[in-house]
Amino acid sequence: MNSTRLLDDVAAVNLPRQFGLLEKTVEVISGSDAVHSLHVRGSLAAGTADRLSDLDFIVAVHDPSFGPFIRIIDTLMSAELGAILPGWRDTIVARMGGLGYVFLVPHEGKLHQIDLYAVPVSRLDTVLAQTKAMPVYQSDGEHSQRHSQVDWLINSTLERPYTAQELLVEILVLGHMIRKRITRGQRYVAYAEMFALHTATKNLIKTALTPGSAFYGWYQLAEEIGATPMGRQCLADLDRLISGHPIPTADDLTAALTTALDVAERAAPDAVAGLRTAISAYWHYLELM
Predict the structure, then answer these.
(1) CATH numbers and ranges of domains, the chain
(2) Which InterPro entries match (predicted)?
């Protein structure tokens, strides 16, 4: 089915500045033979979007193609839409039977957030029952049958620990999200996401310096990480990070991101080196928000 009429339905509800990016994203993702259908959810579906709203998609993928689609999703978003970072495997989105990813994509001089919740077609009805969504694309073909490996792939992906580079991407994505909360005056959400940024920084330190840690969360950090000079410096940076204002201002956020990147440079230099160009672009766009 042609997506034009479905996109017109979304536009009739609300025409945000991001609509051009919405059209382009639908065109890119629907161009994959793996994709059965696309739905928009969140503020765009509800008609409450503002200039900072993210584009929030449910991407229904034919079950046998789910694994290959997930493996190429970073390349697709980077090559076709210019995403500046690999997708963050979203830990905030509700677990509805699929895998969530967050991308930061430039459009008309600004950086926008695109959330993709990829779900096997066999689970699409379950997902749609849990969230308000509007269809923007539907393929003409019938959907495939459930594939036996899909459950294993989703569960193993959700359970796999983050690498240091993935945690650095999480920190940067959270920084973009927090900046939106500050601009909108969403104090409680800014507080929650700032704590998530602190936790991601702590996790990066542990992943880089004590990958075999037997301790959970924030326990035994001083005893375990503080055993080396580098570890003690990372903990000093973490102390400075968590001692900031719990509800950040824009200046607080800049200071927090600077500290988190200092930690990453010290503890996981290879992770920073692999994203150095992306980090420069990120700072440029963050200042334009």
Answers:
(1) 4-159 (3.30.460.10), 164-288 (1.20.120)
(2) NT_sf (IPR043519)
